[in-house]
Amino acid sequence: MRYKVNTNSLEILTSDLLDFKENRLGVLICGHGSRNRLAVEEFAQLTQSLKLRLPSIPVEYGYLEFARPIIREALDSLSSQSVERVIAIPAMLFAAGHAKNDIPSLLNAYAAETGLNIDYGRELGINNSMIGAAGERIKETIQSCKNFPNNETLLVVVGRGSSDPDANANVSKITRMLVECFGFGWGETVYSGVTFPLVESGLRKVVRLGFQRIIVFPYFLFSGVLVGRIRNHTKKVAADFPNIEFLQASYLGNHSLVLDTFLDRIQEVLVGDNAMNCALCKYRSSLLGFENEVSLVQESHHHHVEGLHESCQLCENECTGACEIESKERSFGQLNRHESHKHHPHTHHPYPNADHPLGPSTLD
Fold first, then answer.
1. In the CATH hierarchy, which fold is given to the domain comprising 3-125+254-271?
2. pLDDT per position as a tens digit, 125-174
């Protein structure tokens, strides 16, 4: 195989695409899934953009939960197109439970059942393209303001949050890279769930630093419930500190540099350079505080919501979090449409920091 990299994007040569077609190769993009219609549409649009860049091979997508097609259905579709080898790429920013357990467990089960050859790629991770895409979103926010001194501005990057410390640490690395790229006065990292500090408690800490302008940047691929939660918690803190200007940047979305990274991950599988970070993986190395999770069985925790398709009717565009507000107004015992896992509990290993005062116990 031959590959070229230019200054704009990774391009796979036409001759190689013909080789792919002859070898009956297909690509599967594995997403998490959302009940927010915009988030599902954005994911589908990203996959369509990848199809345009890979016109000679089948490209499909599937979800872990809350949307269709599920991963199994996407694999069925590729098989029906006479695909004999699948490259599956997790549409995850960092490698935590979904990328390390849920998706590979489903892929392994399908491969064992059908005999389909499935090669699993790594998460998007940190590279120059992902930093560039994040920088573009922050530039859009800066350009909307006048008299913007970067060195007098605080950047707050919001990550998804995970029970995997390696994934959480990578969000902090993104923050530091962006702070140095732009020369911001300071940078902090907060999370939308699972770990600490959460958005509201984290923002209430950073306002004490004295900055009069704060950019809140959700380091997410798409819209959804969590982005809506970030927006609402930021507004709540901003209302209590009217003397501080809070600016909310956009999430990554279908940025061309994000697409470049997907192509890069496909290329890595093809050339056999698909190295994941196992040195700090809590399942492989005895990390301080996470020693009990080494060599845990790899399994998916999403069977109870796989294929569950119930679109939220409250938000037509970017998720506003109205469903969460509505659920708090319901009487005790009724089902929160975004917290159904309480009735179908996951079997995750207990997170050692679950009771941290700035973490998950303060979510409500």
1. Rossmann fold (3.40.50)
2. 999 999 999 999 999 999 988 887 999 999 999 999 998 999 999 999 99
